[in-house]
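hiii so my PI (J.) wants the whole complex modelled not just the main chain, which honestly fair. so below is everything: two entries, each one labled with what it is. i double checked the lines twice but i was tired so who knows lol
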Amino acid sequence: MQKNEIIQKLTLIFRDTFCDPTLDLRDDMTTNDVENWDSLTHMQLITNVENQFGFRFKLKDLNKMKQVGDMITLIESKFDSLTI
Amino acid sequence: MTFSSFNFLLFFPIVVILFNVIPQRGRVWFLLIASYFFYINLMPVFAMLLALVTVSTYLFTRGIANSKSSVGKHRLLVLGIIVIISPLIFFKYFSVVNHVITALLFRCGIHVPLPTISFLQPVGISFYTFMAIGYLIDVYNEEVGFESSIVTVGLFLAFFPILLSGPIERAGNILPQFKKLKRSTDYDLVTGMKMMLWGYFLKLCIADRLGLYVDLTFNNIQTSSGTTLLAASVLFPFQLYADLGGYSLIAIGVARSLGIIVIPNFKRPFFAVSMSELWRRWHMSLIQWLTNYIYTPLSFRLRRWKMGGIVTALMLTFIISGIWHSAELTFFVWGLIQGVFLSIEAVTQKKRTKFKQKFNLNKKPWFILISCVWVFVLFSFSQIFARCGSIGDAFNVLGKILNEHGEIKGISLLIPALFLLSHLLIKDFMDEYFPKKLLLFENKNVIVRHLSYAFILILILTMGVFDSGQFIYFQY
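here's the output for the full assembly
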């Protein structure tokens, strides 16, 4: 899956999870930049991402995602490992 | 030695001066010795327990880092957690387990009185245990590297400013700072001492003044009117905030005077507009720890249950938090209440957000005010269970508040406490909504700054309570 495709899909997931139809993603975006993004909604976000993209994260993956860019890179790597 | 003891007033400047005089390579050793001296001064025997936890942490993290197989790493992690947490469980819950076993045997008709041993709980054991477990898990998750110097690990767990009551630091923040300890700058010293001054004001003036009123009322529930109990229940969260918030600021300030930046513990909690926000502002280092090492792994494993998984993880996390505070049933109920409040927020989050967006409520001052008051009422309600000695007492207090009114007792204690509390509320209000206005400690004008320091110092000396004993969180 291409990076642009991932961002597009991820944007829709973010908008739905955080109830913000105008939300646009940036690589350096963190929990501080998005209203309602806390530890409660974070797990909903993770579940939504898994369901939409069709793979499972590992617990260790969660610690690596400090900002949106990390999440995009991780999703890319998941698809790369599937295609290899 | 504690922050409010006379010995500390001598210890602190000596440590700061010597730290800045000795060469860089000796500073970790120096701080480690100073930290053990600080702890031995308070609890000589239990310094050995701290050393034992340090050695265990060092060996298990080394084992995890060196292990080649993931099964081996996992086994060492589990074993390490068991070894490190055992002393905490032993000291905290031995008498409760003993009591339960005796009661169960009695019910089965077996009258075997088990030997009762009453232990003095080692102060700070919860905090260094949590830090050790956090470090172990972080090494396992490869979030931080294994620290090869046992002296640095020893200092991480024994660092005297945060040893007794936190903030609960993470290895990723503090270990890199210990690796390159520089001399304190003028800015470090001034910033640190400003924090300490405000922290002492919070503790000695606000927490301990409020404590006089709250203790008097809760120790005499039967003879106190509903109105007096209501006042005490409203003031207790402020007492807790000033007590642990004050302690934390002193701790952060002491560390800052040595050029070390420790994570914050409170961020104006009573301006939170939801319970989940309150818990992101209240005892932040503990909540972060619970989130990282209990809530996240639990909710992650239960995520297929969708909202059910989040609710289960929330309930368990806060019940564990309650039981950690105390093995009493009151704290179990306290944790349960927090879990229920947060679960309701989680379940209704989407609907509430859409409703607030529809009427643009987030920007409306009246809505913010109502939300803050509502959150405070819920929090104060839950804290009644934490403050009372038994569930019966808590329901008695609630019953009296709702049904029995009368005049407020102890006005003479209340007025100075409220006068002092108003300083904290005004400062928090300004910091929250007008962060650049009415600066006092941070004012550009040197006269205003020094007058502010002098004013707070005079308040401490004239209105501080100097014989009230320990910080509340020492018991945990």
